[in-house]
TrEMBL record:
It comes from Ilyodon furcidens. It is found in: Endomembrane system. It catalyses: 13-octadecanoyloxy-octadecanoate + H2O = 13-hydroxy-octadecanoate + octadecanoate + H(+); 12-(9Z-hexadecenoyloxy)-octadecanoate + H2O = 12-hydroxyoctadecanoate + (9Z)-hexadecenoate + H(+); 13-(9Z-octadecenoyloxy)-octadecanoate + H2O = 13-hydroxy-octadecanoate + (9Z)-octadecenoate + H(+); 9-octadecanoyloxy-octadecanoate + H2O = 9-hydroxy-octadecanoate + octadecanoate + H(+). The chain crosses the membrane at residues 28-48, 68-87, 99-125, 131-154. The keyword Transmembrane applies. It is a multi-pass membrane protein. The keyword Aminoacyl-tRNA synthetase does not apply. This is Androgen-dependent TFPI-regulating protein. It comes from the Eukaryota. The lineage of its organism: Eukaryota, Metazoa, Chordata, Craniata, Vertebrata. Belongs to the AIG1 family. Keywords: Membrane, Transmembrane, Transmembrane helix.
Amino acid sequence: MTFFGLAAVNDLQPGEKAKSALNRWKDLLFSVFAFPVGMFVVLLFWTIFAYDRELVYPATIDTFFPPWINHAMHTIVLPVVLGEVLVQPHTYPQMKHALAALLVVGLAYLSWIVWVYLTVGIWVYPLLRHFSAAGLLGFFFFNMTVVTLLYLLGDWINSHVWRKDKAK
């Protein structure tokens, strides 16, 4: 959401200097967060949902959130981020900066999940209650590996689609 808001503001900015700075932020947000995290949410959610819906989106939630909201959160993201990478070139940051940013955001999100559990005594995602401490570490490490691979995929798609543009 932040990425698309920033993209809209960037398009409205007069002057190339302001656009240049906003473009760098827009590219960073898209390449490091919107694409890999958005793709990850879609892939992980629907994989687990297909295995056992109760682990990520219990049926009791349907009384509060109709199915269209579930698809707005867990499906629409895929065509939107793929569309963005296909219609707009992005400058990807250096790998070490991108991975550091992914790690910081991943650890912050993980900290929030654990904080909620320690404070309230329930896991944000019902799936997590089925893991031991070692299993949780393995699951989180696996997730960060997948997000990193999705970052690399986004970089590859961007480079492949916009290769002609970069040669000019």
